[in-house]
UniProtKB/TrEMBL annotation:
Gene Ontology biological-process entries: proteolysis
Entries under InterPro entries matching the protein: Metal_Hydrolase, Pept_M19
Gene3D superfamilies noted in UniProt: Metal-dependent hydrolases
One MF term in the entry's GO annotations: metallodipeptidase activity
The organism's place on the tree of life at top rank: Bacteria
Pfam families: Peptidase_M19 (PF01244)
Protein name in the entry: Peptidase M19 renal dipeptidase
Organism: Candidatus Brevifilum fermentans
Amino acid sequence: MTLIIDAHEDLAWNMVNLGRDYTRSAFEIRQDEENSPIPAYNGNTLLGWPQYQQANLTIIFGTLFCTPRRRDNGKYKIQVYETPQEAHQCYRQNLDAYFELAEQHPQKFQLLFSQVDVNAHLERWQAHQAEEQTPPPPVGIVILMEGADGIQTPEEVEQWFDWGVRLIGPAWAGTRYCGGTLEPGPLTKAGYSLLDHMADRGLILDISHMDHLSARQALDHYAGQVIASHANAESLISGITVNRHLKEETILQLIEREGVMGLVPLISFLDWNWRDHGGRQAIGLEKYIAQIDHVCQLAGNARHVAIGTDFDGGFGVEAVPHEIDTIADLPKLIPLLEEKGYNQSDIDCIMHGNWLRILTNNLPTS
């Protein structure tokens, strides 16, 4: 069965703010939250360890994230920040949550920091596939910082690297480093300095959520590896009115830079006006496949597109294509890709190979 790598899941935010325990089943978590305000606030979870195993989901990019106070809707008590110091503390708590998860449940989750870690982890999964009687391997987590406000100064990048962060996305909303979603703007002087410090340590740059201008500036300037962990092609999202996704010229520049783009199966990111077009039941995985195919056609190959679900990142099962109930349903993409004419090599690239190439080419050797 094809392995899957997912480049964007907001596990720590959910663990810290909602108390979700991802060592359990998604269905157990849903049952526990049934009479709580959590589903109304963040949707019914799509994630759980048994579902990871069913999907053969081998590695995730686990995010560090905290909400700026100005963007908090007040509907549920969550951690927010106003100052760089508050952001630093909040992001550090997210990071601690991953270390605690891996230390307390090493049979279920493992942090990956280097090429050696990734290769050894992959060997465990391949051995398990060859001999199913072996114990199921853990899910590997590579740490991605979403929004760089937790980095108090560009020079602090080195400290976060030493703590285990391997990818940084400078924006969610706008930050002091660059414009972001709903808050457009260029890279700032501090933003350019941030990129330079990231490149010095070999960190991977994630342009997701960056404003169109700042994303293009970053692609022009950054000396290291660039990706988009969770963004779709704006041109395919009819009616979209926000600067959340990638324009064609940005996608082409990302491809030229040998980047990879993780696509998000959120129905509003597939059809902005989905409520007027029949609701969730009218939005199927074929629209997600269309996004995948679009990037492949732009690139002329299947080496620049992959999976970046953004699961449990402010939405749940109510907001994904109707064929998806949990993360365990991601393998449903495979026959749809086959119907579209993709061969097994292409499918392997899309489902895991492209992200694996990014990791093995760019993480520290050991």
